[in-house]
Amino acid sequence: MKWQRPALLWTAVLAAGLGLWAGHRLAPAPAPAASDTPPAASPAAAATPALQVGDPLPALTLPDLDDRPLDLRQRFAGRPLLINVWASWCAPCVEEMPELARFARGQGDNGVQVLGLALDTLEDVRGFLQRVPVGYPIVIETPGPRDASVQLGNTQGLLPYSVLFDAQGRLVKAKLGPFAHGEIDRWVK
Description:
With 189 residues, the protein is α/β, with parallel strands linked by helices. It has seven helices and seven strands, in the order H-H-E-E-H-E-H-E-H-E-H-E-E-H. It starts with a helix and ends with a helix. Residues 29-48 are annotated as: Disordered.
């Protein structure tokens, strides 16, 4: 029984350390003082205003898993569309994928369409999907200051990030962070 106390203590120390690290990494940047000069906005950020509720799906054409261009507006027109931005190296993204796959399977021919948008390399995504297959389409994007995730409103650049568009292609809502089991069904209503 004595060995349990040190293990519990080390677990608590590790959890506290991770909590402090996450708090530091995720804390908002302090506002500049009145005497401070504001940081220069990057041209990419200034050129990409945040997507707002009611805005149309941006004109995006991205390669699919066969490296063929896929025009999102054309391919997914006429039905609601849930776009989930993820990466193979993102643990919360990977954890929510079975939930996204379950939701997509239950939609049938007239329900919400699901699209995975991987901020990753084609090779890494293909390798990942060999281990964790999903039944919904996947497109690939190279991460960058004006990537598709940013154009879809992910101004913080964190993953996973999901957006829901209605049948007319207008933004309904956005979510930063993973879906819990059963949450997608409530979220799209």
